[in-house]
Amino acid sequence: MQKKSEIKKSLLVSLWFMFLTFPIMVIRVNPVEKLVEWRWRNMVIVGVGSFVLSFVWRYMLRQKEAGLKRIYAGGRYKIPSIQRVSEDRRLFIPLLAVLSVFVVIFPFIFSAYQVNIMTTALMYVVLGLGLNIVVGLAGLLDLGYVAFYAVGAYTYGLLNHHFGLGFWAVLPAGAFMGALFGILLGFPVLRLRGDYLAIVTLGFGEIIRLVLENWNDLSFGPSGIANIDRPSFFGMQLSLQSATVYIYFLMITLALFTVFVVNRLQNSRIGRAWIALREDEIACQAMGIDKTKTKLSAFALGATWAGMMGVFFAAKTTFINPASFTFLESAIILSIVVLGGMGSIAGVIIGAFVLILLPEYLRAFSDYRMLMFGAILVIMMVFRPQGIISNVRRTYKFEGINVPGEKNK
Predict the structure, then answer these.
(1) Is the Cβ–Cβ distance between 232 and 165 less than 8 Å?
(2) Which of 28, 162, 222, 393 is spaced 20 to 30 Å from 171 by Cα?
(3) pLDDT at 409
(4) Helix, strand, coil % over all residues of the chain, rounded to 5
C-alpha cells in the first residue's frame, strides 16, 4: 500500500512538472517561417525524469527515517567511520604513510595548474578551520569573515608596496591585524545573537570592502595593488615554478599547524567554554564563565587565521583588489564549515576539498556545474544536516576524590 501511494504521489509530481514546463519545453515558435513546433519528446523526458527523481527522493527519505528509528531504538550513537579508522592503528598508520608520500610527491608529478588548485584548497582548509572556531565551537554566526581575510591581504600589500617588507616579516603582522579587527568586531556584538549577529557581521564585511574600494589614498581603490613579492627562501627570490611549489609546501605546513592548534584549543578549557557558550549562553554564564572574554577570544582567534591566509593570498596571486573579498567568499567558507560538519576538524577539511576542488574539476560541465553544486548542497542539508562528519560530543566523568583509608566516592 505504501509503494502504491508513493507511486501516485510521484505521478502527480511528474504531471505537475509537465504542466509547468509545457510552454517552455514543448512549444517553440519559428518567427522566420511562421511555424509553431510541438516538441512532445521533451514533455515525455520531463515527465519520466521528474517521476524517477521524485520516487528516488521519497525512497531516500524513507531510508533516512528508518535509519533514525534504528538508532533511537538501539539507544546508541554510531561512531563515524573516520573516527573508527583513526582509533585503529593498523589502518591509520599505513593510510597516514601513503597520504604523506602522496603529499610530498604531488607537486613533482602534476602540473603547476594542479598544484595551484591544491594550494587554494589548502588555504580554504585553514580559513574553514578558523571560521570553525567562531561558528562551529562558539556558535556565533559570522557572515563577514572575509573582512579579516581582506585585512591580512592588504596588510601585506601595503607594507610591501610602501616599505618593501617581505612575506616573513609581514606574516605575524597580518595575524595581529586580523586578531585586532576581530576584537573590534567582537565588542559591538557582545549582546547580539542569532540573526541579529549575522546581519551585523555581514554589514562589517561589506563596510571593509567598501572602504577598500573607495579610499584611494590608502588602498588604491578598485585598481588594487600589483607586483606584490612572493615568499623568499632564506633571502633568495624564486622563479614562478619554484615559488608555486614552495608556497604549496608552506601551506601544507601551516594547515598541519592549524589542525594541531585547533584540536588543542577544542580540548582545552577555553574550547569547553566555547562549546558551553554555543549550547546555552545563560547556563554558561551561570557556571561562572566570562561571556565577554569567551566571545572576544573566539572572534580574535578565528580572525587570526583569516589574517594569515590573507597574507598568503596576496603572496600567491601577487595582486589584490576589493573584488577578491566579496560576500561570496564568506558564504563559501561558511558552506565549508556547515557541509563538513560544525565543530569537526576532519569534516571541515573534507568539506574544503569538496567545495573547492569539485567546481574546478567539473569545468567540462561548466553549463551545469553550479546546478550540480547546488543540488549536492540541498541533498546534504536534507539527508545529512549534521555535515559529512558530525562532531562527536565528548563526555566527562567525575571519578571522585581519593581519600586515604576510604574508597572513591
Answers:
(1) no
(2) 222
(3) 47
(4) 75, 5, 25
C-alpha 242, offset from chain centre: 29
Q: What is the spatial distance between Cα 265 and Cα 298, in angstroms, rounded to a whole number? A: 10
Residue 326 carries which DSSP code?
-
Detail the DSSP E strand segments found in 206-255. Answer: none
- Cα 49 off chain centre by: 32
Dihedral (CA of 67, 73, 74, 78) sign? positive
pLDDT score at 218: 84
pLDDT in tens, 307-341: 999 999 999 999 999 988 988 888 889 888 988 88
Contact by Cβ (8 Å): 36, 27: yes
Q: Tell me, what DSSP letter sits at residue 392?
A: P
Helices H, strands E: what count in the chain? 16, 2
Residues of the chain with pLDDT under 50: 77, 79, 409
Q: Say if residues 200 and 188 touch (Cβ distance below 8 Å).
A: yes
First to last CA, the chain: 57
